[in-house]
Amino acid sequence: MDQGKRSRARRQGPARISSKHQITLPASLMRQLGLRAGDSVDIEIEDDHLVVRRHSSRFDGVVGTIPGFTEAVDVKRSRDEW
Q1: What is the distance between the alpha carbons of residues 20 and 54, in angstroms, rounded to a whole number?
Q2: C-alpha distance from residue 33 to each of 29, 47, 52 (Å)
Q3: 18, 25, 40, 51: which is deepest, by most CB within 10 A?
Q4: What does the pLDDT look like over 14-56, one tens digit per residue?
């Protein structure tokens, strides 16, 4: 990728990790990534960096295409209900 065209997030200053191991993401980054409160993300380590990516499910393309399958399902909760 051309260095001139690489998009980089502006540094917002240091973030702190709370006693509950939580990090608050700056609103500008949330908007830039199209994320909202409650969205699922995957967090991975690449080299010595934490990388946060939007979570994608293998069912994302199926939701709404099959009658009765109109929203995400909490499999663990559904299994407990059986």
Answers
A1: 22
A2: 6, 22, 10
A3: 25
A4: 788 999 999 988 888 888 888 888 888 889 999 999 898 888 7
CA pair distance 76, 10, nearest whole angstrom: 38
| pLDDT number for residue 12 | 63
What 3-state class would DSSP assign to 50? strand
DSSP 66: B
* Two structure tokens written together for 5: 């065209």
Q: What are phi and psi of 36, to 5 degrees?
A: -130, 160
Residue carrying the six token digits 């009658």: 67
70, 64 Cβ separation under 8 angstroms: yes
Q: Is the pLDDT of residue 9 over 70?
A: no
